[in-house]
Write a structure and sequence with these properties.
The protein is of the alpha+beta class. It is 57% helix and 6% strand. The protein folds into two domains: 73 residues, Glutaredoxin (3-Layer(aba) Sandwich); 130 residues, Glutathione S-transferase Yfyf (Class Pi), Chain A, domain 2.
């Protein structure tokens, strides 16, 4: 059995959690683990980030992309990547653009939007410009046939479910409109994904964690 450490508001933790649930991998979870620069935590995660996956022999992995690849190779019984090498690469390409060029760009705005911290107008405009480019790239890759990368559920769907709603909310709060609204199939696609048990469970836990945080 493996152990996943992180917290239920973290989209990268939730991506890995959905993958574990979809694959049917038995796992323990520490859902109260936060990023830290303490020496103890840096021995588990060299950059002090979550999630962290710990194997039953004590070995550890950090970075959600690396954990995703490990789980796909270690638990191939229910694959979340296509067999064809090119098709596998296209799924990875989609996830890379989604995370590097869309979610991580929107993340620059999180302190401003969610913590009310000041941000310069230049920084805001740069994020807006880079988001437009990233979303344009995303639009060229998505398929919704019926899943985001094609006919089968993949790790790209696990990533889309946790990242894209957050990007929508962030752009609404920062710029007054949802920058993903031009991708017409997105909302019904996300709604359909949310009906799958693994996705629904993670989403409900995320909502509960957010509600608990708001009461503090």
């Amino acid at each position: 059995m493996v152990k996943l450490s992180g917290f239920h508001i973290s989209n990268y933790h939730n991506k890995v959690r959905i993958i574990l649930l979809e694959k049917g991998v038995a796992f323990d979870e520490d859902s109260n683990c936060r990023p830290s620069q303490s020496e103890e935590f840096l021995t588990r995660s060299p950059m002090g980030k979550v999630p962290v996956l710990e194997l039953d022999d004590g070995r550890r992995l950090s970075e959600s992309a690396v954990i995703t690849e490990y789980l796909e190779e270690a638990y191939p019984q229910k694959p979340l990547l296509p067999k064809d090498p090119y098709a596998r690469a296209k799924v990875r390409e989609l996830v890379a653009h989604m995370e590097l060029d869309v979610e991580l760009v929107a993340r620059r705005l999180y302190p401003h939007v969610y913590s009310k911290k000041e941000i310069s107008e230049n920084a805001k405009q740069a994020a807006e410009r880079d988001l437009a480019r990233g979303i344009r790239a995303l639009e060229r890759l998505v398929k919704f046939d019926p899943y985001i990368a094609g006919g089968e559920l993949t790790v790209a769907d696990c990533a889309a479910f946790v990242h894209l709603p957050l990007v929508s909310l962030t752009t609404k709060l920062a710029f007054g409109r949802d920058y993903l609204e031009g991708i017409a199939p997105l909302k019904p696609y996300l709604k359909k994904l949310g009906e799958r048990p693994a996705f629904a469970r993670v989403n409900e836990d995320r909502k509960a964690a957010q509600a608990a945080l708001s009461k503090k």
